[in-house]
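User: Can you recover a sequence for this backbone? Please restate the input before giving your answer.

Assistant: Of course. Working from this structure:
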């Protein structure tokens, strides 16, 4: 819940990038990195507020959306370790591949992080992340400390984001490739029952898509390995005691027995093939 003061702060925030604003700020330094992803995935990632506490659990404990649109998003963010929070917005200039993240209340108020993404090729970009604070720190030691903290944090954030962006592109490429394949097979061999780890997750590629085979309540089950929200890798999700899995990218939950999305925030899982055992082997049919 937002206080009245916080609501007023949010209402006063602009929904467009002010490029002249940096003239009134103190520039600490920057972090430049090449990433083996295309621009579409990078801009998609900038808009994707939901993934923060799941992909970046060491930096964000929770996120409550205040507003979003083509301009970006605004949210209240819980920080790891307790009651600290931030009100933060990320304002995007889509045409220039530029975005500004600003803490406007809470720990680090006034910090602005300006990012310029540049396309180097069809599958590689460069990001120039520039760190600003409202005023110059008291001395160089403090400035160096703050810059190192921010640089280290963004190095980790991009390490983690790279897995999401690359994984999503791979899932999209796989989906496109399957469109040209003939539908269905009479059966698909999963494996010998004696060789399948009952505590493991077995990813099976078929012409109909990717599926997971697991052991649940003394029987083998199968469910889609692709989250219907943004194609997240459900094969990386652990099965809890209720038979539910949680997407590691955005926290969407599913009942593996029915494929139903718990909470109704997105579509249910794609229908899984029937699983049968024949002569000591498991098959999809």
């Amino acid at each position: 819940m937002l206080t009245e003061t916080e609501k007023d702060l949010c209402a006063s925030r602009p929904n467009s990038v002010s490029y002249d604003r940096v003239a009134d700020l103190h520039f600490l330094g920057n972090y430049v990195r090449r990433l083996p992803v295309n621009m579409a995935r990078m801009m998609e990632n900038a808009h994707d507020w939901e993934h923060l506490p799941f992909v970046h659990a060491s930096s964000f404990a929770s996120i409550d959306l205040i507003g979003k649109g083509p301009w970006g998003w605004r949210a209240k963010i819980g920080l790891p370790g307790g009651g600290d929070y931030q009100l933060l917005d990320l304002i995007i200039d889509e045409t220039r591949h530029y975005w500004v993240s600003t803490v406007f209340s809470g720990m680090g108020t006034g910090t602005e992080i300006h990012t310029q993404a540049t396309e180097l090729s069809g599958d590689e970009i460069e990001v120039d992340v520039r760190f600003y604070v409202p005023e110059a720190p008291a001395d160089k030691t403090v400035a160096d400390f703050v810059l190192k903290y921010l640089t280290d944090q963004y190095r980790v954030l991009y390490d983690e984001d790279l897995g999401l962006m690359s994984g999503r592109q791979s899932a999209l490429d796989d989906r496109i490739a399957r469109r040209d394949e003939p539908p269905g097979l009479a059966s698909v061999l999963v494996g010998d029952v004696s060789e399948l780890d009952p505590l493991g997750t077995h990813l099976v590629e078929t012409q109909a898509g990717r599926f997971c085979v697991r052991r649940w309540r003394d029987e083998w089950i199968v469910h889609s390995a692709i989250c219907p929200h943004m194609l997240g890798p459900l094969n990386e999700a652990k099965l809890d005691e209720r038979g539910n899995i949680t997407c590691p990218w955005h926290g969407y939950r599913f009942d593996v027995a029915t494929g139903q999305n718990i909470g109704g925030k997105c579509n249910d899982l794609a229908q899984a093939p029937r699983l049968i055992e024949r002569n000591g082997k498991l098959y999809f049919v």
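That completes the design. DSSP finds four helices and 16 strands in the chain.
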